[in-house]
Amino acid sequence: MRARIRWLTRVDMAILEYLDGHKLSTFEQPPSAIAANIETSSGHVRRRVRTLAAANLLERTDDTAGYYRITDLGRRYLRGELTEDERETLREFDPDDTGK
Question: Which domains does the chain have, with CATH numbers?
Answer without folding.
Answer: 10-80 (1.10.10.10)
